[in-house]
Amino acid sequence: MEDEGDMPVKDGAKRPLIGVIDDGTKTVRFVIYEAERSEELAAYQLDKTEVQPQEGWWEQDPHEILHHIRMCAEQAIGQLTELGYSKEDVVTLGITNQRETTIAWDKFTGEPLHPAIGWNDIRTDSTVDAILAKVPDRNKNYLKSICGLPISPYFSALKMRWLKDNVKAVRRASREKRLLFGTVDSWIIWNLTGGPQGGLHITDVTNASRTLLMNLETLNWDPMLCRLFGIHRDTLPQIRSSSEVYGSVNDGTILDGISISGILGNQQSALVGQNCLLAGQAKNTYRSGCFLLYNTGTRRVQSTHGLLTTVAYKLGPNSPAVYALEGSIAVAGGAMKFLRDNLKLIKDIPKDTEHIAGQVFSTGDVYFVPAFSGLYAPYWRKDARGIICGLTSFTTKNHIIRAALEAVCFQTRDILEAMHKDCGMPLTKLHVDGKMTSNDLLMQLQSDLIGMPVLRAHSWDMSALGVAVVAGAGANVWSYERWRRHATAADTFLPTATDDDRDARYTKWKMAVQRSLGWATTKKSITMTASAPDLRLRRLPAVTEDNFEFCSVDEGQKKNDTSFLLRYQPLCT
Ligand SMILES: Nc1ncnc2c1ncn2[C@@H]1O[C@H](COP(=O)(O)OP(=O)(O)O)[C@@H](O)[C@H]1O
Ligand SMILES: O=P(O)(O)OC[C@H](O)CO
């Protein structure tokens, strides 16, 4: 199909370029595409500093995000000159970002009032409990019919509520009407378009649909939800479509003057980049987490099996919203980092995970449930914690590494099973992307464990490509039809396991998941909070439940509370 206004470009003439800001959990990238040929011309990326001030807390520096964007843009644009292009050839920008991560800032000074609270941060556990206490039967799915999401620490409204409850500067800014909230796209755009000097406080429907505050039908902030979470409408950004010219960069840096015409949450962006624009198409992106999105067209499918209903995209102010069912997995690539950084089992993630895990033919019946901060879809259990089970004297690190790879595949199967139940129609193939997909062993295991072909994209970064297309269309320099001619999978992995084998292993995985549930109680671990001098214990020969005694305990702690007692090492001085 030939699209209207599809201007042929004469040979030798320069073609318009599209810049993409891709802010991920771990990295910031700037990518430049040549629209006509869907070609990635230049790219640069920088790692972010991860800050974990307490167990389960994940923070990012909002200033670092802006700094990295500008540095990456300079480097990528620098590469253009070697290719005979210049900055002026970059005609528009798209922004794709980690979703849910939340920032509060001062609209007059532009200063963040707290570090960004990451999507995977679970500090809001007790905030969740306080909100659940306000809804009938403490039902975590009570709001799903309005916003498509369960009440979980994952989503932005809980992080906003926590900031208001716990950070004085946020409360003061709120009282003095200086407070602005936003997901990372809002923070970036506000700063790029002028900050305190007239910066645009906007977001798109896909990011807004991850806050717990947007009504999926009206595509606007829902008054009842804002009231429930105590978030004032004036502190929230205006919700726009994913593809339109919002404004231009006005920050005196390298990107100055370029228009911004596309915004998509990074998982929705990968759905577009994978050309899953028809109802019934799905993709899975393997990054720090793993996110499977199933396009349901203009229908909002209500999941009864633990999936989210989310906005997939809205390709212009007058286009209808397209929705998706999403299965979100909190830890995928993150488990590989855990093996490298915490357990020191590997050094080089891509090389070692494939090579070392490939030295054994199976996990030796070892199962690894990486529920480091609870389990997301389809379980939504914040009380789950990671386990490695089935260890024997035969187990080696090879089995554990392989079990970590298989965990990604089993979690994907959990999502596919739920999608099948919700939609009635099983998927027959799975499009995949994300850095982890360069791992051939992982791809083969994935195909074996779900029993369907796995189609790997020609480039791992479909998130950047997706928003490039959307921004190009928004600025009228690219069209979906033209781009589709280039959208093909690079290779396909076919299942080699039998149905019996696949199902037996999946049954065992479900047993492992059961064992991970309920591990974290809501009770605070005082090993984390009490300081040592508060606890003077009598010298004892050995600690048992029978002979352990406190000399001094915090008020409210019962002497016979053995769960408390057993967390302590006695001070045998
Ligand atoms: N070839 C590979 N095999 C296994 N894991 C990988 C491979 N390449 C990257 N990973 C893991 O995938 C994740 C990649 O995430 P990345 O896309 O860089 O980050 P982000 O989550 O910020 O988007 C990292 O956590 C890394 O551990
Ligand atoms: O940056 P990623 O790839 O870890 O993506 C994070 C997701 O958007 C969280 O919902």
UniProtKB/TrEMBL annotation:
Domain Carbohydrate kinase FGGY C-terminal residues, every copy: 289-473
Pfam family, one: FGGY_C
Residue stretches making up the Carbohydrate kinase FGGY N-terminal domain: 18-273
Keywords: ATP-binding, Glycerol metabolism, Kinase, Nucleotide-binding, Transferase
CDD domains: ASKHA_NBD_FGGY_GK1-3-like (cd07792)
Enzyme Commission number(s) from the entry: 2.7.1.30
InterPro entries, per the entry: ATPase_NBD (IPR043129), Carb_kinase_FGGY (IPR000577), Carb_kinase_FGGY_CS (IPR018483), FGGY_C (IPR018485), FGGY_N (IPR018484), GK1-3_metazoan-type (IPR042018), Glycerol_kin (IPR005999)
Top-level class of the enzyme under EC nomenclature: transferase
Pathway: Polyol metabolism; glycerol degradation via glycerol kinase pathway; sn-glycerol 3-phosphate from glycerol: step 1/1
Keyword Nucleotide-binding attached: yes
UniProt family annotation: Belongs to the FGGY kinase family.
NCBIfam families per record: glycerol_kin, PRK00047.1
Annotated protein name in UniProt: glycerol kinase
Species annotation: Chilo suppressalis (Asiatic rice borer moth)
